[in-house]
């Protein structure tokens, strides 16, 4: 490898990474993109998916906090929830 190419990623490596990234997206996105989609479109979809996952985590955290605030901290249910979060 020449010094000018050091640290650069090959087209084959990019294609492999795109395939791996596409495999991580939900099934519905993979079906929509059955034909080879552009890397930029795939990255945009991946970013949107990650944002939706962050929102889902935030929503679940709020729901869990609300649930925990209505429970007795010493209750068996509270202990089960705490053990699941460890």
UniProtKB/TrEMBL annotation:
The alphabetical list of record keywords is: Growth regulation, Transcription, Transcription regulation
The record ties this protein, via InterPro entries, to: bHLH_dom (IPR011598), HLH_DNA-bd_sf (IPR036638), PRE (IPR044293)
Domain of life per record: Eukaryota
The answer to whether UniProt assigns keyword Transcription regulation to this entry is yes
* Pfam family, any one: bHLH_ILI
* One Gene Ontology molecular-function label: protein dimerization activity
Q: Name one GO biological process term.
A: regulation of growth
Q: Which residues form the BHLH domain?
A: 1-53
Keyword presence, Transcription: yes
What the record says about family reads:
Belongs to the bHLH protein family.
Write down what this protein is called: BHLH domain-containing protein
Q: Which organism is it from?
A: Miscanthus lutarioriparius
């Amino acid at each position: 490898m020449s010094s000018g190419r050091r640290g650069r990623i090959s087209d084959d490596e990019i294609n492999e990474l795109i395939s791996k990234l596409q495999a991580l997206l939900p099934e519905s996105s993979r079906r929509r993109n059955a034909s080879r989609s552009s890397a930029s479109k795939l990255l945009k979809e991946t970013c949107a998916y990650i944002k939706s996952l962050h929102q889902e985590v935030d929503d679940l955290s709020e729901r869990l906090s609300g649930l925990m605030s209505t429970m007795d901290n010493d209750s068996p249910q509270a202990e089960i929830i705490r053990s699941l979060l460890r």
